[in-house]
Every structure is written in C-alpha cells, then in structure tokens.
Design brief:
By secondary structure, this protein is of the alpha/beta class. It contains 10 helices and 11 strands.
C-alpha cells in the first residue's frame, strides 16, 4: 500500500512554480497576480483564503484579498467582479464560496471573465473541459489528476467509480478520467447518494473517488483488494481529545480501507493541499496566456 502524499506533491509543485516565477522575473516579464473575493466571516473560508494568500507569497505571486461584509448587496458584489474583470494587473481571481443566501452564486460566477476564472467554474471553461479543449480545470479535480500522474497510477482501461456528482468535483472527475490521454482512458461510473447498488459498484472498481461528504462512509467491505482510493471528503467531527475540539476526517475509513488498497490518499494531507497548488498553477497559466 502506497500513501499518495498530497502535501509533499503540492510542495514539489509550488517549488516548480516558484522557479518558473524566478525565470519570469529575470526575463522582465509580469509576475502572476491572483485576487480573491471573500464575503462574510465563515471560518472555513477565512482559513482557506488565508492559506491561498500565504501560498502566493511562497511562490512569488502578487496577491490581493478583497473582504466584504455579508451585508453586501448582489449588485455591489457584481460591481466588484466587473472591476476585477477590467483590471489588467489581475491575471486570475476567485470568488470564495459559499456566498450569503441573498446573493445568487450562479449570477456571480457567470459574471466572472472566463479568461480570469482560475477556479474553472464558469460554464465556458467547464464546456471546453468536456470537449477536451485547453482550459482552466477546477482545482480539486486538477489536483487529483496531477497526483495520479506523478505517482504513475494507471488509469487506462480501468473502471473508476466516482461517488458524488457536484459540479466542483464529481462531474469534472468523471469527464477528466474518461477523456483521451494520461491520466484518462478509463471507464467511469458516476454514482451518488441515491445510487441503489453503491456498494456493488465500489466493490467492482479499480479506482474509487469519494466526494460524498459523509465521514468514514467507505468501509473495507466496499472495496476490492488492490483498489486505488482517492478521498476528497473533508468533515470536522467532534473530538474531545483534540486541542481544537474536533478532527478532520474524510469519506473513507482510512484505517479499515488502507490495508486493502494499492494506493490511498490520507485526510488531511491528501487531496486538500493539491487544491491550492493547482489554483496557483491555473494562475500561472492565466498570466502566460494573457502575455501571449
């Protein structure tokens, strides 16, 4: 059993990006600039955006954080999005989700310039991904593809079961792993919480990608020996023994499933760190495209 170390892989990737930025500086080229819009005081969002800002500093990017109270109106937020669209110093930006209930997330995401949509959520970019065209891939699926490639996990001809059908993880993964290329060329089954024979499907899978959001859902009796297990789930569960009062767990019961698997991602330290690294990679790509 090999643990797919997302923390190490993300650090390797950040080092490669930092070296590329150094070369850009020497050549007198523009340094990538990532901006983030944060609305409200959601704890997880604050932590995530803070990590993105620190990561920008690590690789030599410029970064801008725009914070607004959760009382901001939809129209005011749209004005901020349009301002970033027309700001030539910004190469890419993200609008941190979730947004307050009085704001239509789809309307905000649709307003983002697809050429600056480094989250890869805009329908324009999603459509190009589905057509196997060059585009921004959502950061979490992009990170999973990167870690599969770097660990040389074979996907060609394999049966992949993706559990979870979100537009951010599940659906993109089903598209990416079925497309031509490496990683890819897999036969993909997209399952979800209403799939009647879920355990039967995961037992047949060569690769299982869990993105359901239910802690420790996948047990050892639900996978076959030698399966590759990718755990996208991140849930805080109460733990009185932890200084924080909680612990982070995934959708996979790691202690049960790991001994049966050939490769497995841990939580934390698996897919999570890759998400931010791939956001940086998308921003670097956006900067290069804009220069060309």
């Amino acid at each position: 059993m090999i643990v797919l170390d997302g923390k190490k892989t993300s650090n390797d990737l950040k080092l490669e990006i930092a070296q590329e930025v150094d070369r850009m500086k020497v050549a007198g080229s523009k340094v990538p600039h990532l901006a983030a819009i944060l609305v409200g005081e959601d704890g997880a969002s604050l932590t995530y955006v803070g990590s993105k800002v620190r990561s920008c500093e690590q690789v030599g990017f410029e970064s801008t954080l725009l914070k607004f109270p959760d009382t901001i109106s939809e129209e005011e937020l749209l004005d901020q999005v349009h301002a970033l669209n027309t700001n030539d110093s910004i190469d890419g930006y993200i609008v941190q989700l979730p947004l307050p209930k009085h704001i239509d997330e789809n309307k905000i995401l649709m307003a983002i310039d697809p050429e600056k949509d480094v989250d890869g959520f805009h329908p324009y970019n999603f459509g190009k991904m589905a057509l196997e065209m060059d585009t921004f891939i959502p950061a979490t699926p992009f990170g999973i593809m990167e870690i599969l490639e770097r660990y040389q996990v074979k996907t060609k001809g394999k049966h992949v079961v993706v559990v979870g059908r979100s537009h951010i993880v599940g659906r993109p993964m089903s598209i990416l792993l079925s497309r031509k290329g490496n990683p890819g060329n897999a036969t993909v089954t997209l399952a979800h919480s209403h799939t009647a024979n879920l355990a039967e499907l995961t037992q047949q899978a060569d690769i299982v990608i869990m993105a359901l959001g239910i802690p420790h859902f996948l047990k050892a009796d639900m996978v076959k020996a030698g399966a590759v297990i990718i755990d996208v789930g991140i849930t805080r569960v109460p733990n009185a023994d932890s200084p924080k009062g909680y612990q982070i767990v995934g959708d996979v019961d790691f202690n049960e499933v790991a001994p049966k698997s050939s490769y497995i991602t841990p939580v934390p330290g698996g897919v999570g760190p890759m998400t931010i690294a791939m956001l940086l990679k998308n921003t670097l790509l956006a900067c290069k495209r804009r220069q060309n």
